[in-house]
Design goal:
Blueprint (H helix, E strand, L loop, with lengths): L5 H7 L1 H8 L2 H9 L8 H11 L15 H8 L4 E5 L4 H6 L1 E2 L3 E2 L5 H8 L5 E6 L4 H11 L5 E6 L10 E2 L2 E3 L4 H6 L5 E4 L3 H6 L1 E2 L3 E2 L18 E4 L4 H12 L4 E4 L11 E2 L1
Parallel strand pairs: 1-3, 1-4, 4-5, 7-12, 8-10, 8-11, 11-12
Antiparallel strand pairs: 2-6, 9-13
Length: about 260
């Protein structure tokens, strides 16, 4: 509507009606219904908005690193390597141990959910010209400790520092769950998606909240991770592997989940 009146809104605006005549709990529930879980960096942004951000003067130009230098720095617990390849299947097949999958289409979403403000960041990019835009995205979220950039094309030279992730499809999930021990199933979709239908017995932690809720992820076995299409699952698996979990990534679409495994 391009315009309205106070009288119209008092009669037909649900939120305003609850604010005027309802309870606080009913108003809050109405406002939050269907809202996606915010990425972890929102808390950082609140702090920055209140106290101010550091003055950098210019956009930092991180140094170009060799893969050997990246692998050496990645052993530092204060350093996080962001692998920005768009091909998630390629990441699953071979990636630097401990690196986080942050494809361009989901870069702000994933990086903003995975990183802590004091993390030193190393970017793995397909082309050198990608670095500037990604650095700017990090700065806008409050992450300004970018230590370097390296090329994904050089990854094969990392040798023993490269690992692969275990994968499965939904067609293979029944056999996994019938095994001993059976994996824990982690659904990293939004709560509203989970509510609409999920794998029976699955635990739901939205990918945007996974880093701050890692202590809720079981440590006594393998974690089978899925989302709606596979994109968020791969990112979540990279974070869980970084945190030391053993995972199997369901790089598959949830509609292909067998009906026998579902709770409506």
């Amino acid at each position: 509507m391009p315009g309205s009146t106070l009288g119209y809104e008092k009669r037909f605006n649900t939120a305003l009606s609850l604010a005027l005549t309802g309870t606080e709990d009913a108003f809050v529930a109405s406002i939050l219904e269907g809202q996606p879980e915010p990425p972890a960096y929102f808390a950082t942004m609140k702090k920055v908005n209140k106290t101010g951000s550091p003055v950098l003067g210019v956009v930092p130009v991180p140094p170009v690193l060799t893969i050997a230098e990246v692998a050496a720095q990645a052993a530092d617990p204060g350093v996080v390597v962001l692998d920005t390849r768009a091909d998630r299947t390629a990441w699953l097949a071979s990636h630097l141990r401990g690196s986080l999958h942050t494809p361009p289409a989901k870069f702000s979403d994933f990086a903003g959910s995975w990183l802590r403000p004091d993390d030193g960041v190393i970017l793995l990019v397909d082309r050198p010209e990608q670095a500037d835009g990604l650095v700017r995205q990090l700065l806008r979220m409050g992450f300004d400790l970018v230590r370097g950039v390296a090329l994904t094309g050089d990854l094969p030279r990392a040798g023993a520092a490269l690992v692969s992730s275990r994968t499965a499809t939904f067609a293979e999930l029944p056999a996994l769950l019938a095994g001993s021990p059976a994996p824990h199933v982690l659904d990293v979709r939004r709560a509203s998606e989970f509510k609409a239908g999920h794998v029976r017995g699955a635990r739901n932690i939205a990918h945007t909240r996974l880093r701050v809720r890692l202590d809720e992820v079981p440590r006594d076995g393998t974690i089978a991770v899925h989302c709606q299409s596979g994109v968020r699952a791969v990112g979540a698996c990279s974070l869980l592997e970084h945190a030391g979990h053993e995972v199997v990534c369901l790089n598959d679409a949830f509609p292909r989940c067998p009906e026998a495994l579902r709770d409506a």
